[in-house]
Write a structure and sequence with these properties.
Layout: E1 7-11, E2 16-20, E3 23-28, E4 32-36, E5 42-46, E6 56-64, E7 68-75, E8 78-84, E9 98-101, E10 105-106
Antiparallel strand pairs: 1-4, 2-3, 2-10, 4-5, 5-9, 6-7, 7-8, 8-9
């Protein structure tokens, strides 16, 4: 990481449920919490706990100098709602095979 920029990843201690339009998109007791300088805490959920059948890959890719290149998925009424780092940088390797949502309901 660069000076003044930190990322920490730790196991979450709560049940995470992601809802959209009244439908459960993901539920997990195994989410990772990623905290990054200047960003809100993000919950990265194991792919096995996400309803991938409801999501459609989008053509969007973004690059983070600290985490790597992200790929995105959409719902019919929510573009690029979900992202993941298929090949994250070594410093954040724990988020491989995990997906993150913009809006989560932590319950």
């Amino acid at each position: 990481m660069t000076e003044g920029h930190t990322i920490t990843i730790e196991p979450g201690d709560r049940h995470i449920r992601v809802m959209h339009g009244g439908q459960v998109l993901a539920q997990s007791d195994r989410a990772l919490v990623l905290r990054e300088t200047g960003c809100p805490p993000r919950y990265y959920i194991p792919a096995e706990d996400v309803r991938l059948d409801l999501l459609t890959p989008s053509g969007t890719h973004t690059h983070c100098p600290f985490k790597g290149t992200a790929s995105y998925w959409s719902l019919p009424d929510a573009a690029d709602l979900v992202w993941a780092y298929p090949d994250p940088k070594p410093e954040v390797a724990a988020i491989k095979d995990h997906l993150c949502f913009y809006d989560v309901d932590v319950s």
